[in-house]
Amino acid sequence: MTKVIQQDVYPSMMISYDQGVDKIEPIKLGKRLKEIRKSLGLTLEESSKKTGLARSTLSKIENEQISPTFQVMQKLTNGLQIDIPQLFAPPKQISATGRRDVTRNKQGRAHPTSTYEHELLATQLTNKKMMPFKSLVRARDFAEFSEWVRHDGEEFLLVLSGEITFFSEFYEPVNLNEGDSVYYDANMGHMIISISEADALILWITAS
């Protein structure tokens, strides 16, 4: 039997045989990069800082809109501290159903910004479908944000203490108190400020 190696339009790659059997699932570099980034608990902005690549460039790669050059792949692997073969290796299939990650109180991974003080939770698990984190809301005014916050996926927010104003691109602002929650499309521009005397504490869960 003659073995034929076929390469689709980069970055999709597929190995197949001429009789159409034993096909291997195409490897999408953009999808694989996104899986690696999320497994490292990184946002597009954080990945941009680590790799020196523009956020828009990373987003286009992840969405298969552009193909990364070899130089770009080197920046990705150096910045994310991974090997180039990891970009081509399909993610390991998880057969067990008993995954678990305990995060003790105030022992999550700290990630402060100018407007929020995030505490990332369950950071030991890779290939998560959800990204949970707690945040102290430092911002007090809409003007503290240079632009709308927006990203892929859907998001759930629960106010743990204090009071916030939730701004969103297509709705009127709404005040939320302790115990109140909101579920929304994270591709829609959104941002949050504290309106209580103390910084509000919220739980965020982002789902892909």
What does this structure look like?
The chain has a 6-stranded antiparallel beta sheet with strand order 3-4-5-11-6-9, with no helix packed on it. The chain has a 3-stranded antiparallel beta sheet with strand order 8-7-10, with no helix packed on it. A two-stranded antiparallel ribbon has the order 1-2. It contains 5 helices and 11 strands. α2 (44-51) crosses α4. It is an alpha+beta fold and 208 residues long. The protein starts with a strand and ends with a strand. The protein has helices at 29-39, 44-51, 55-62, 70-80, 84-88, and strands spanning 3-6, 14-17, 109-112, 116-120, 130-137, 154-161, 163-168, 171-177, 181-185, 190-194, 200-207. It folds into 2 domains: 28-88, 434 Repressor (Amino-terminal Domain); 109-207, Jelly Rolls, CATH 2.60.120.
What is shown here, in short?
This protein is 21% helix and 31% strand.
Short key terms for the protein model shown above:
208 residues, alpha+beta, Jelly Rolls, 5 helices, 21% helix, globular
SSE blueprint and pairings:
Elements: E1 3-6, E2 14-17, H1 29-39, H2 44-51, H3 55-62, H4 70-80, H5 84-88, E3 109-112, E4 116-120, E5 130-137, E6 154-161, E7 163-168, E8 171-177, E9 181-185, E10 190-194, E11 200-207
Antiparallel strand pairs: 1-2, 3-4, 4-5, 5-11, 6-9, 6-11, 7-8, 7-10
Helix pairs in contact: 2-4
